[in-house]
């Protein structure tokens, strides 16, 4: 592939399709360990929901006309049995409704005197009884394959009887920091700049849906030699589905990523993207469905590459839907970048996107205050009051 930049939207779709073609094999996880993974098959009920008639309130189950003789109590988790004509059974929220129950009277609407339960007016409906299958029938599909698992999904899976579920795990990610000019402690100076991506990218990758590999949080800075680059990439690829690198994506005298990829037998999925900032980004595929994502070394450019390439790649590998962008209203004008898509740092204030200062590709001040990027298409500029695309920074 040549270094001719590919359109930004096309690059995202191309990378997603490559990830989807190499999506991770399903595994079975205990539901409590599945947070952040992706359903590898539809989530279906193993029982009707609810599995038995339950009370949605505290009160009294009654049969016949009142007042009713109090004849017992049923609590959540207990067997209810039957209810006889003219009697009432005290019932707790979530408890099994006794067979033969005609109504449930809420505790706040009832009185109990001398063993008799009475109420001012009998409910005309059974709204406080949750019927069998009211929420879902046996075997009903609750969520489709490809749905990302959240704590709410875990709770739903547990409620309908699952102990294990089939998932595609979060892609394992490693991070390599290229550039022996970087300092990893203390203030920058004397020609060395402080590495800002090593401390921040692992967390961002985690928010994006990756599983950063222990021991690779991160590795580097890697020496500026081809041998060091190849060795570091080989070691990382032994354990990772996706290896993110920072710096070295151009073809300067100490940029060794491209020759290292060639030595490893990689093939480009995307090589440079028509986006500003951050156009010298890339994704390369290797045997076994593994990928290297080359992030530019400038901090903001690197984050642009994360939202441009890493997010769709992770979605594809996990078998999720393509990550679409949303829209926002611009609070101020945003310039275009000619034939390139412009990703402009913005923060959301009262539902509108405010462009941020300190937005140079090497600056972090604007990035630290940002919610995401406004998307200004090629050949256009953004005008205050108009709606444009928006992609959120994983955080």
TrEMBL record:
Assigned GO CC terms: cytosol
Family: Belongs to the MoeA family.
Organism encoding this protein: Actinorhabdospora filicis
Any GO molecular function: metal ion binding
Annotated keywords: Magnesium, Metal-binding, Molybdenum, Molybdenum cofactor biosynthesis, Transferase
Gene Ontology process terms (BP): Mo-molybdopterin cofactor biosynthetic process
InterPro entries, sorted: MoaB/Mog-like_dom_sf (IPR036425), MoaB/Mog_dom (IPR001453), MoeA-like (IPR038987), MoeA_C_domain_IV (IPR005111), MoeA_C_domain_IV_sf (IPR036688), MoeA_linker/N (IPR005110), MoeA_linker/N_sf (IPR036135)
Name this polypeptide is given: Molybdopterin molybdenumtransferase
EC number: 2.10.1.1
Reactions performed catalytically: adenylyl-molybdopterin + molybdate = Mo-molybdopterin + AMP + H(+)
A Pfam family that the UniProt record links to this protein: MoeA_C
Domain MoaB/Mog: 174-316
Cofactor(s) annotated in UniProt: Mg(2+)
Pathway: Cofactor biosynthesis; molybdopterin biosynthesis
Function: Catalyzes the insertion of molybdate into adenylated molybdopterin with the concomitant release of AMP.
SMART domains, alphabetized: MoCF_biosynth (SM00852)
SUPFAM superfamilies linked to this entry: MoeA C-terminal domain-like, MoeA N-terminal region -like, Molybdenum cofactor biosynthesis proteins
